[in-house]
Design a protein that fits this description.
Number of domains: 1
Shape: flat
Number of strands: 0
Helix content: over 70%
Oligomer: single chain
Strand content: under 5%
Distance between the termini: 36 Å
Amino acid sequence: MTPEQWATVRRLVDWLDAANEAGEHETAMRLMKLTEEAGEVAQAYIGTVGQNPRKGRTHSSSDVADELCDVIVTAAVALHSFTDDPAAALDAKIRAVARRSLPPQPDRAGPG
């Protein structure tokens, strides 16, 4: 996420805190909201493949992408409840996953 996106997420956190008050209950609700959004991703994907024969194909790939974006935003909002620097926490996690999952990148400078 860009710094501007994190600033927008911070505004969303502030808005939610003002509307619902910050605290353990609100943190729990934000985590439950994340689960709800993940369920909507699954529902959209099921709709793209027509898994439910009664309903058929009801969603598109763009619907799945939109729901995945909702998960990302919801997770970013929830992350604020657990760290003072969510951008750094996400960056550190991405780097850790890359270190353990991806082969080392070749030296781009090359020989002399």
